[in-house]
Amino acid sequence: MARFAMLIDASRCTGCNACRIACQMQWQLPPARYYNRLEHNEKGTYPNTKWEITPIQCMHCDNPPCRDVCPTGATYKRTDGLVLIDGKKCIGCKYCMVACPYGVRQINDDGIPEKCRFCAEYIIEGKMPPCVSTCMNEVRIFGDLDDPESKISKLMARKAVYQLLPEKGTRPRIFYVRK
Amino acid sequence: MFTRKQWLTISLILVCIGAVGAINILLNGEHVMGNTNQVPWGILIAGYVFFAASSTGVGLISSLGHVFGIKRFELLGKRALLISIILLLCGFGVLALELANPLNMIYILLSPNIKSPIWWMGALYGLYLLLLFAEFYYSLKEDHKKVKPIANIALITKLAAVSNLGVIFGMLHSRPFWQGPYYSLYMILTAILSGAAILSIAFYFVGQKGRQVVYQGENILINLGKILAGALFITAIFTFWKILTSLYGGIPGKSEAAIALLVGPLGLKFWVMEIILGIFLPLFILIKYSFQPQKVMFASILTMLGVLFMRLDFVLSGQIIPLELIEGLQITGYNPYVPGWSEWALIVGAIGATIFLYMLGEKKFNLDVIVDNHEHQENLASTKTTLVKVEA
Ligand code: SF4
After folding, report:
1. DSSP code of B29?
2. Which domains does chain B have, with CATH numbers?
3. Do A93 and B99 touch (CB under 8 A)?
4. Do the beta carbons of residue B156 and residue B144 sit within 8 Å?
5. Residues B261, B266, B268, B271: is their CA dihedral positive or negative?
6. Which of B46, B213, B282, B314 has the greatest CB tally within 10 Å of its CB?
């Protein structure tokens, strides 16, 4: 069984937002709706300052609070690790939105809080999610952690990585390369 | 005060305002609501909490009579049950419009997730509503043998339901201001607060119809006023410590939310509506006028106004601070939230519906209570008309 994950090397990000736009194109989202975003953070003290950029999207947590709070099981976790939503079971209570510590859910026109789906339909065909394939700097690496030959497995073995908000106990499937 | 006809007209106007809001929400969904992706829960969730907790509070106070056997509270009997049913139905109505896909509720039964506090909310409040109907039905038939066990189960159910209402928020580790058991206890307390206030308003108007609601010569509003004063006082203490513990140590997400309440965008609502109008002024009126029935009613109206804003402050304070997901991320500003007019209209409509349905109930059912009391016949005999019929 595959164990999909993503490794993000934020230090390579130029802030061009191509990942966000590629995702919006892929899923035909209106301009104000997006499943990935860039957080900008000012670091240092003048004059030694810099913008630090962190790409954020659904973390496909191994212990997802959005799944735990969902009253109908509309939000579920697949055995390959993807956290997905079954729209026909969703009552639109938005509990998952409030429960997500990463603030990644976006309400769609049907009142369903959607989010990054790791492009579930594409990756099973062996394709890459557009946010990965479109990036000129290879900021995102997507793959199967159970395959030792995958690029992500090899990089993860070499690099020091961290996850966002480990204290929340969510155990995200998105890892960041330590700067 | 207004005549019955005028009250009916006013409540129907409010219901119509609510209906316009409801239709607008049904047609346009999220677009006409103030909710955003950063503040997913808005005034309708606050409205639901307002109605559901009030319904439970009314039930909890009436339990003093039919569960704990305190005779004077048995006077509340059927009226309290009816009010509780109406408030809960109005709460469900408000919630149904907040949910984007209420028809999918069937999956609460088909694929239940018992880890979800919202699932428990549906189960417990659903059960509570059924028990209320049963208790009301047998109370109307004066079948006290059946009422008693139902009332006992209902007491446990309502305590579980209202504390679970707090758990819905308390379980959220993503929202430090809400997280923890505090809001479970707070919900029980403030349910009693709004229950006492609503019963005071209702029984004041019952008394207005020339019938005194008295027990041993003492107007029931005096007892309700005392419960209200106690609940107001404890709520003030709860609120004080909640704010202080949240501020202490400057914990991210917690202290900023407390600051938002004290001096931030929620400040006006918090100080003017929740604290001054909703807690201190009613407490002052109650104590200054020694629980005079009319003053208890005024204090109760102020309290309910305060409770409405208290619920809104509570729902917003957990979401107003942007999530801090990257260490050292500078949080600039607050998550904005402005309720849509349709949402306000819906809340107003639900209040109108509560008044309207209650008046219908008063007309349709015999809500007077027979209390078995031998000792104080003389006292009661001296009252012009009384709701308490004494069984020899
Ligand atoms: S909004 Fe839908 S997916 Fe989210 S918790 Fe509610 S039912 Fe589940």
Report:
1. G
2. 12-336+351-372 (1.20.1630.10)
3. yes
4. no
5. negative
6. B282
Q: How many contacts (CB atoms, under 8 Å) link A and B?
A: 124
CA B85 to chain centre: 12
> Are B49 and B328 within 8 A, CB to CB?
no
Confirm or reject CATH 3.30.70.20 for domain A4-177, answering yes or no.
yes
Number of residues assigned to chain A: 179
CA–CA min distance B315, chain A (Å)? 11
Q: Phi/psi at B43 (nearest 5 deg)?
A: -65, -25
Sign of the torsion formed by the C-alpha atoms of A36, A41, A47 and A48: negative
Per-residue pLDDT tens for B105-161? 899 989 999 999 999 999 999 999 999 999 999 999 999 899 999 999 999 999 999
Q: What is the predicted ipTM?
A: 0.93
Ligand 1 center from residue B118 Cα (angstroms): 10
Q: Which stretches within A27-150 are classed as H helix?
A: 65-69, 95-99, 120-123, 130-133
How far is residue B14's CA from residue B17's CA, in Å, rounded to a whole number? 5
What does the mean pLDDT of chain B come to?
Answer: 91
Find where tokens 């203490």 sit.
Answer: B237
Pocket test for ligand 1, best of A94, A96, A112 (most atoms within 8 A of CB): A96
**Is the Cβ pair B108, A71 closer than 8 Å?**
yes
Domain ranges of chain A: 4-177
User: The pTM is what?
Assistant: 0.94
CB within 8 Å of B268: residues ≥ 6 apart: none
Eight-state DSSP code of residue A136: T
Tell the residue number behind the tokens 């997901």, with chain if given. B325
